[in-house]
Amino acid sequence: MMAFRLARPGHLVDINAVDELKLLQSDGIDLRIGALVRHDALESIEGAGVTGDLLAHVLPSIAHFPIRTRGTFCGSVSHADPASEWCLVCVALGGRMVLTSANGVREVAATEFFEGAMSTVLRPNELLKEVRLPLLRPATRFGFQEFSRRRGDFALSMVLTTFWLDHGLIREPCVAVGGAEDRPRRFVSAERILSGAKPSSDLFVRASQEVAQELQPMEGPGTTARYRRDLTQALTQRALEEASR
Ligand SMILES: Cc1cc2nc3c(=O)[nH]c(=O)nc-3n(C[C@H](O)[C@H](O)[C@H](O)COP(=O)(O)OP(=O)(O)OC[C@H]3O[C@@H](n4cnc5c(N)ncnc54)[C@H](O)[C@@H]3O)c2cc1C
Questions:
Q1: Centre of ligand 1 from the C-alpha of residue 172, in Å
Q2: How many A from CA of 74 to the centre of ligand 1?
Q3: Domain that residue 58 falls in
Q4: Is the dihedral of CA 144, 149, 150, 154 positive or negative?
Q5: How far is the CA of 227 from the centre of ligand 1 (A)?
Q6: Does residue 10 lie within any of the structural domains?
Q7: What is the pLDDT of residue 165?
Q8: Is 85 among the domain residues?
Q9: For the whole model, what pTM was predicted?
Q10: Between 21 and which of 36, 40, 107, 110 could a Cys-Cys bridge form, CB atoms 3.0 to 4.6 Å apart?
Q11: According to the model, what pLDDT value does residue 3 have?
Q12: CA angle 52, 158, 174 (to 5 degrees)
């Protein structure tokens, strides 16, 4: 916001010297990402399995190299831009936010954390201390697709999908969309279409049509709701195909 001259805060709180917030580790159940973990630290994380692979795959879509070396995962999540890749990842994977203040610590599910564009349940005296992302089962496949007009720009829409195959049938599908509505969310009706079905182009077309139908796209200068709906449908289909390969 300061880079775009949209915010001129009277005070800044520098958390860079708080070593405890540099935490980045897997505890066998979750990947724990502390408030000072920069985007580029997520390029290669020991012991994070498929969750780590997914983060490394999404990472290059975030802004430009200098921003990835300075911006933080938790800063992006707190900022809650609808087009933030990490906000989408948190919602898709079922992440949990650990919020701390002088009054104590509370944990909030990612699905409850985002209230709208640039709006979260964070109280003025709270710090997002860490985000916990569940470690995905080793057989989990994923697909991530996004579109922005220029490389490094905020995406107009993005889709993240995960599932695993049991005897060739889709299990625990997740279809989540970011950047198109005011906050990221999962599309349960599309997930129902996929669950227990055999992967095929026809199936992916049906699931992506369902997403497009349910989507309530934002409109902006040069971006109509219809454009975002069509775009999201195409991205959903591509993300599902990517995951099935
Ligand atoms: C040109 C440009 C392009 C960008 N493109 C993308 C993109 O494509 N995708 C993307 O996801 N992001 C993008 N970003 C955002 C970037 O990734 C940063 O993550 C984001 O700006 C947050 O930066 P930061 O971590 O330094 O947090 P800050 O800028 O320091 O903080 C952002 C806000 O969150 C609050 N905050 C920060 N950390 C915490 C915390 N731990 N607890 C509570 N509140 C906190 C701050 O008070 C502030 O209000 C872009 C930014 C720029 C400038």
A1: 31
A2: 8
A3: 21-134
A4: negative
A5: 27
A6: no
A7: 98
A8: yes
A9: 0.97
A10: 36
A11: 81
A12: 60
